[in-house]
Structures are given as structure tokens and as C-alpha cells.
Amino acid sequence: MQQMAIDRAKRNLAKALAMGTLSPSLLAGCVTNSTAAKSNVELGCMNTNQVLIGGAIRRQGQFEAVVYSQLGQFQHHIPLPARGHGVAIAPSKHHAVMFARRPGSYAMVFDYRDGEEKALIPAENNRHFYGHGVYSNDGRWLYATQGERATSRGIIGVYDAENSYKKVAEFSGFGVGPHEIIIMSDGRLVVGVGGVHTQGRTPINLATMKPSLSYLSGNGELLDQVMLPDHHKSIRHLAHDGEQTVLCGQQYRGEPDDYVPLVAMHRTGESLVELGGEPEQWARFNHYVASIAATDSHILATSPRGNCYGIWDKSSLDLLEINVLPDASGVVVKNDQLYVSSGVGKVVKINADLTKNAFVSGIQWDNHWSAIT
User: Fold this and answer.
1) Taking the domains of the chain in order of start, what are their residue ranges?
2) Residue 9 confidence (pLDDT)
3) Residue 211: how many other CB atoms lie within 10 Å
4) I need a surface site. Which of 55, 101, 156, 186 has the fewest CB within 10 A?
5) Which has the closest alpha carbon to 348: 320, 297, 314, 311?
């Protein structure tokens, strides 16, 4: 019944957006006048350097990338060939890339200042995109998680951002079914390897899956690989805290009545350490964690399937709270504040002291967010 209500709410939101009856109010008009500015500051208005890019559902069967301006208003709606998933933002030019949801057929590069498409990267006939990618720290290379269609063999496609995003290399040898890839400050690539061989989106090797958190050099050399004791925890989504801490979220592929930790933390040279929570608390996440972010003091993970997000203390790893948010999706961190999106248009701003403000964005946010820093 709860899922039916959520689906109905999403349909109603899509209808309102299509008819123009729901005005976008998220962070809008932050500098109209002193009184309005004061009001918006109290509501948590974004600073001028906080620009967000995320996938969205425009209406049934139509998808887009949405760019928010420095004032938190709509700047660009960029139509997508199919449903998008993750976003990579270039550090050295005004480019962003939207990756198709797995098994994806495209990656679209666009200029987030004017919304102009710069390149549409097709997946080769025997490849598909897994929905995520990241630029090298100097912006020269774009790394994208890919799979071989027949086997789900994991591949990192390497594209030359200075040469029309031509594919120049592939890295492999780290496992099956990679999903998210991030980059550390020292240039190491970190890959969440799900370990699942799929046909379309149907898993076919759950008894033998081998998920891992894999570290690669910028040249594709496998530097380290760590695993959780339970091989049914498919490692999928990643984040780091700007230093040396990597966080990974899992999709549990084991017994449906088992409720196990779904977020783990890793530091180089150490084992994966799982975050706290009782089985009945982890049950709220419905076996799936999507976006993750970390501040100096807290870790946040969303669960669209569980219609909630959790917040943990970063030092003790204790679960502090679980909050209801229908179709909880993306999360970004900026200035020690967290912003969480949802597929029913709601956005929650979370301050360092965990006080919260909620907004209606007028956008059906879909999957992940990225912030232009």
C-alpha cells in the first residue's frame, strides 16, 4: 500500500509539472530583495557556488538532465536519449557527463553553462555502460564503468576529453559487474564491483558472485582489492570524504528475510568496517543503498527502495537516525551541509547539527546528484 501511494504521488507530480501548475520553489530567488533574501537564508538557500546537476523524469518515458543555477533556479533542462543515472563533472572545463542507467547505451557530454551537447558517446555493440564515470584529477581522461554484454566482465573505458571523447583504452581484470567509480586525491581509481553477472537487469550468478572494492592506478593496474565476508553484498555505490576514507553501499542479494548492514567504510591498509545498526533498522533500507556522502562528522546514505535515508556518526559509526523520504535518491555535500533529493520532488537540507529544512523542488529527481565545486 505504501508503494502504491508513492507511485501515485510521483504520477501526480509528473502531471503537475507537465501542466505547469507546480512552480519550482527550491532555493529560488535568493537575492530578490533584502527581506526575501533573509527569508531564503532561513530556509537554507544555497550559496552562489553551489550548483547541482542531476537526472530527472520529465514525464512518463521522457528523461532529462537538470542544471541548477547559482541562485538555485532552473538553468537548463537537457533532454536525454533514455533514462540517466550518474553524473561526472570535469574539474578543468565546464563539461558534465550523464551516463545511461544500466545496461546503458550512451554517455552524454554537455556544457553545463549553456546546456549545449558536446558529445554523445555510444556503447559499442558488445558493451554497455553501468551508469557511472569520473574524470581524472586533471580533467584529461574520462573513466566509465562498462561491461561485456555476454559475460558482464568488468571494464573501465578510458576516453580522451581533449580529443572529442575518443575511446583510447580499456582496463579490466578486477571482476564482474562494476558500478560506481570514484577518484582519490592521489589519482587512484576506486571501483565498486558488484560481482553480479546479469542478462539485461536479471542476475544469473547469485550463488557464485564475488563483489569487491577495487583500487586501480590511473593506468589500470590493480593495486588493492578488499571484500566483505558475505559475498551476497553486491558493492555498488561509493563516496569518499575528500581525504582517504572510502564509503561503499551495497545491495543485498541473499535471503530476503535477512537484514544486514549495507554501508561499509574503508581506509588503505585496513579491512572494510561496516556501519552500525540493528537488523530491524537495516530492514528499513529494503536491501538497497543508493547515494552516499560524508562530511567531517557524518555519513548519509539513501535508499529509494526503502523510502528513507540514514545518518551515522563518522567517528563511532553509530546509526543516529533514519528519516522517511519517499524515493530518496541523490545526496551531495557542500560547506558541511548535506542536500538530499527525492523522486517525488522533495529536497531536504541537513545542517552540521542535523537540523533540517525541506523544500519542494518541482523536479522528479532520478537517482544521483553531483555538485559543481
Assistant:
1) 2-372
2) 42
3) 28
4) 186
5) 311
